[in-house]
Design a protein that fits this description.
Protein name: UspA domain-containing protein
Structural class: alpha/beta
Order of helices and strands: EHEHEHEHHE
Organism: Pseudofrankia inefficax (strain DSM 45817 / CECT 9037 / DDB 130130 / EuI1c)
Strand content: 15-25%
Number of strands: 5
Strand order of the largest sheet: 3-2-1-4-5
Largest sheet: 5 strands, parallel
InterPro entries: Rossmann-like_a/b/a_fold (IPR014729), Universal_stress_UspA (IPR006015), UspA (IPR006016)
Radius of gyration: 16 Å
Shape: globular
Family: Belongs to the universal stress protein A family.
Number of helices: 5
Length: 150
Amino acid sequence: MSTGGEARRIVAGIDGSAGSVEALRWAAREAELRGADLLVVLAWQVPVGSPYVPTVPLDAQTLEDSAKQTLEHALSEVFGAKLPDGVSAEIRQGPASAVLIEAGKEADLLIVGSRGHGGLVGALLGSVSTAIVHHAHCPVLVVREPPREG
C-alpha cells in the first residue's frame, strides 16, 4: 500500500474478539486512505498461574497453533481468502500490551479494539488498551466493539 517516499505503517493489534475484528476493519480502511502498509499482530503467551488462579498445564505449541488459527480467522473475516498488497500478519509471543507497544515503535498509528461491558464499566478501557494508550510511541486509536443487534 505504500506509495513511495517515506514508508507509512499502521499496526493493528487483534485477539479474535469482535472488537478487535472491528479494529482490523478500521485499520484496513485507514491504511488504504493513507497509502500505508498494514501490519496485523496477535500476541500470545503461556499463562502464568498465581496462588489465586491455578494454571492448567498447556503446551506452548498448542497455544501458538491456536493463536495462528485466531489470526487466520480474523484476517479471512476482514479480507477474504487473499490479503491485499501491503498487508502482512504475524503472531508474537509475549504480553499483548508489550508486544503491541514494541510493534508500534515503527508505526504511524496503532489501532486496537476495546472490549466494552456496557454501562459505566463499558466506558473504561481494558488493561491492554490502557497500557497502549499510555506507553505507545505513536498515536493510538481504540475502536469500540460494534453494538449488538437485538
